[in-house]
Amino acid sequence: MDLWQLLLTVALAGSSDAFSGSEATPATLGRASESLQRVHPGLGTNSSGKPKFTKCRSPELETFSCHWTDGVHHGLKSPGSVQLFYIRRNTQEWTQEWKECPDYVSAGENSCYFNSSYTSIWIPYCIKLTNNGGMVDQKCFSVEEIVQPDPPIGLNWTLLNVSLTGIHADIQVRWEPPPNADVQKGWIVLEYELQYKEVNETQWKMMDPVLSTSVPVYSLRLDKEYEVRVRSRQRSSEKYGEFSEVLYVTLPQMSPFTCEEDFRFPWFLIIIFGIFGLTVMLFVFIFSKQQRKES
After folding, report:
1. Which UniProt keywords apply (predicted)?
2. Comparing C-alpha atoms, which of 55, 136, 127, 54 is closest to residue 94?
3. Contacts from 76-83 at CB under 8 Å and sequence distance 24+?
């Protein structure tokens, strides 16, 4: 029994040392993370449950907003404890002091909105998120890198033509640019991607991007209903904005009787003119033959 008690005592002592070592690990990682952030200021923490940036977006190169998770469910946030600070580089060095978010309200909960007074293009920004005074996330960007336009509006379509077989049709789809994008003055240049599919299909067909606000769609079946949507992006960007509302296209049905009439009508005229021509030629032949007999 004494031997078993001795072994049990040794096992308990070893497990206690292991737990003590595991408690020291987070503090060590925290210090390493802080040192890494001082070396790489654009690198944020990935600690689970802490407030973290989710997206920064500019809809028109004139304003932008940044959003983050709140961390409420992990007990890491108390009212007013999460703050955003930003800094801009006007020269080759970061000489300005960190300033707090100018507007926590306009872009919704857990966000910061920068109006045109605080937005400058071609100038790098760095933003950091703090929770109870300690930094939990940080990122750097330029405004032109985060442009994602609002959806195009006012989608409509017109019928271009119907095939001779009465099976397919071509349409022209038109739309308007996002209302807040100043495309008339060329402040922002947008290109558009149109997608369409049959109502019961799941896979959208993508058309090549265009700079115009209209595009033809060819060879749609007359017996199908289609969905059409459009999205846009800044010409120099790879990130598209959200899609427009879906436009439903229902093409006019061509009845078999109408199709048969379309095909018979020219043939009927050809037959009539053919009979008339043969009749005239017959009369001329008979008349000329009688004239030779009389002479």
Report:
1. Cell membrane, Disulfide bond, Endocytosis, Glycoprotein, Membrane, Phosphoprotein, Receptor, Secreted, Signal, Transmembrane, Transmembrane helix
2. 127
3. 76/49, 76/50, 76/51, 76/131, 77/51, 77/131, 78/132, 81/131, 81/132, 82/51, 82/110, 82/129, 82/130, 82/131, 83/129, 83/130
* 214: β partners: 174
Residue 115 near residue 143 (C-beta atoms within 8 A): no
Total Cβ atoms within 10 A of residue 32: 10
Tens of pLDDT, residues 2-48: 444 444 444 434 433 433 333 333 333 333 333 333 333 433 344 45
Separation CA 214–CA 118 (nearest Å): 35
Please report, as a single letter, which amino acid is at residue 120: S
Q: How many CB atoms within 10 Å of residue 215?
A: 19
Domains in the chain (CATH in brackets) are: 52-70+80-145 (2.60.40.10), 153-250 (2.60.40.10)
How far, in Å, are 22, 171, 187, 201, 204 from residue 198 at the CA level? 58, 14, 36, 5, 8
Any bridge partners for residue 37, and if so which? none
Q: Which two tokens stand for residue 83?
A: 């703050």
Query: Are 190 and 230 spatial neighbours (Cβ–Cβ below 8 Å)?
Result: no
Cα gap 279→93, rounded to integer Å: 98
* Cα separation, 81 vs 50, whole angstroms: 12
Query: Amino acid identity, residue 182?
Result: D
CA–chain centroid gap for 214, Å, is 18
Report yes or no: 231 and 244 within 8 Å, Cβ to Cβ: yes
Output the CA angle 286-289-291, nearest 5 degrees. 110
- 90-107 tens-digit pLDDT: 766 666 789 999 999 999
- Coil vs helix vs strand at 244: coil
The residue to which tokens 């920068």 are assigned: 114
Cα–Cα dist 150/240, whole Å:
9
